[in-house]
Structure formats: structure tokens, C-alpha cells
Amino acid sequence: MLENISSALRSVWAHKIRSFLTILGIIIGIASIITIVSTIKGTNDQIKQNLIGSGVNAVVVSLYQDDYTYDMQYSPLPDGVSVIDEETREKILELDNVKDVSLFRSRNYSENVFYKNTSYTGSLYGVDDHYFDIYGYRLSLGRNFLKEDHDSLRKVVILDGMANNNLFSGKNPIGETVEISSEPFTVIGVVEQASSFTPVINSMNDYYMYMNTEGGKIFIPTETWPTVYRFDEPQSVAVKTASTDDMTKAGQQTADLLTKSQIRGDTFSYRSQDLLEQAKRLQELSNSTNNQLLWIAGISLVVGGIGVMNIMLVTVTERTREIGLKKAIGAKKKRILYQFLTEAAVLTSMGGVLGVIVGIVLAKLMAYFMQIPTAISVPAILVAVIFSMVIGILFGLIPAVKASNLNPIDALRRE
Fold this sequence. Notes:
This protein is an alpha+beta fold. The protein has 2 domains: 2-50 and 281-413, no CATH class; 58-241, no CATH class. 55% of the residues lie in helices and 18% in strands. It contains 14 helices and 13 strands. Strand 4 and strand 5 (118-120) form a beta hairpin. Helix 2 (16-52) runs antiparallel to helix 13 (378-404) and helix 10 (275-318) runs parallel beside helix 13 (378-404).
């Protein structure tokens, strides 16, 4: 085998230009496949990240009326829906793959928040002790909420970085007072998320969703919420799971538990944001389009294989006397067959390796210049190289069989 590979490499090197032109179709086909697969993988990863977030693995379970989220901001207290207590939270925590649970309340576009003459139009959250850990918030200034803040209903707030920039121009806000529904709240801290991402905005819905958090977030203890809004307002639930793939199941189990334990009647229900399922649907839509491109790229591989078969037939003709001489001194039919199959496989394997290199370079260039998300797939690279070898064997079979079947006497007479 090593002798056949060595002989194949010498033959390729002796006809460098011809060999390169022969495998050009293989190079183009493999490079196209690597680039497309990298784009598919990168796009799918970005879809998943944009919908789910950057590694927090948290799914929100909220109250619905019929098929719509129940908006406490513009609706009365829902009849027959009780506040979630600590005992129910512990039951949620016992569900499979659930790592942590937070009970919180929220308002979007909180127009009742002011610092002096500056109004605030971001989001306001009433959170418990678990919320910051679930969403990866870390203190950058001041302190976190204490047990006494929750127990004594202290009027204290924590800002995220964006809210701090909008209200205080990024200066140290600790000790300053903001008004929420005409109630004075003291700023005690500033938090930042340990990891964050910027969503890709492709529609007006994406735009409004993003603008919803562009003003930043202000957090108060959930026990202080009735001071600002209504008492006994049902909470939403943030469930942190062990992995992203567990989010759908954990969210559904939490929603079912809350619907059974917290609601009387059929008007309301708890539902989870099945972001993972949304991501899968978008990924399937992306894949169905890109798979068509893969078939087109596959055609170029077939064309490249035909080119290999053509040049190997020419090689057999050129080396007829050599084949006849080898058979005359005792070379068996099988040895001649393996020699030409090895040469075809080596030729296409070189094309596969060069195609992988070109494909990776193209994927990187597309990511840089066109801002297209790409992610190199190692399995795709291995499959591409192996596939190129298989093409060499398949399309080199006819020339190899022809060479092995040559009559040595006729071959030696050939000019």
C-alpha cells in the first residue's frame, strides 16, 4: 500500500498542472460544502442564541388569559389566581433538571419612574433573592438586596448599567433617590450581566422587543411591589435548567404545576416561553433552504469525479507499455488494479484536503466581510475528506479495471 501511495504521489508531482486541473472540481465542491455547512451551523447557533440568550438557560413561565399573556399593566387583578408562595416554589425546584427558581413581577415602559426631571422608560422588576443568580447579574457598584430589605419592605433599588447610563449618565448613583409612583427609593447598587448578547433585528416585532430593554432595567424587592402597584399581584416564574435542551420540558412541567395549584376556573393558565421550539422551527426553515445549496455543491463533486475518471483513462493509455512490462515480469491483475485505484484515491484526497482549506478560508472571509455568522464543523470536514476518497475509488474503478485487464503482449506492442 505504501509503495502504491508513493508511486501515486510521484505521478501527481510529474504532472503538477494536469493533476491540479483534474482535482479542481473536487476542490470547488468540497470548499462549497464546507462553506455552506459552516454558514448553516453558524446561523443555527445564532438563532438559538438570539432567542434563548447567552448561556443562562432560563425559561419564563407567565400567566395567560386564553391564548394571550395577561398584562398586569393594563388589566385588573385576575380573579381566581393566587400569589405563588414559597412552598410552591420549592415544589418547582424539585422538578427534573431544575437548578433554581425565581418569582418576580415586571413592568415594561415604566413611565412612573423619575430622577429629578429625568424620566425613565425602561423596565421595572420586583425580584427575589434568586433572580440575579439565575440571569447572571454581578454587582459592579454598591450592594445587593439584603434579607432585611425584603422583610422590612425597604424602598431601595438596584440599576443595571443601561439604566444607570440613562438616569445618571454612568456616574456613581449610590445614595441617590429616584421616584417610583411618587415614592422615594434609594439607589443601593448597580449590576451588570456576566454574559450578554445583542439580538439581530429582522422585523418590527424584533425591534419592539429590543427597544423594550434598551432603556435598561430597575430592580426593587418583590415585597415592596405593593407599595408601587397593586397588592397580591400574581408573579411570573424564571426557571433555570441544567442545560438549554432541558428548558422546554422544565418550562412545561412548571406551567402545569402552577396551573393546577394556583388557578381556579378555566379562564387563566400558566404557560412557558418555548423559545427552544421557536429556535428549532427557524433552524429547520434555514436548513431546508441551505440543503438545496448542498445538493448543488454535491453536483460539482460528481463533475469533479468524472474529471478524475477521464484523466485516469488518459493515464492508463499513456502507461500501457509500463503496465504490460509489469504484467510480463509477474505483476498480478490485482496489483495493477490496486495501483490505479490508489492513485485515483490519492488524487481526490489531495483535492479534498485543499477543498477543506479553501472552504475554511472562504467561511472566515464571509464572516468578516459580509457579517454572516459561521461555525466550522469538524464532522463536516472529516466527511468531506472521506467522501473525496470514495469518489476517487468509485470514479477510478473503470480506468483501474481497464488497466488490470490489459493483455501484456498487446500492451508491450503498443507505441
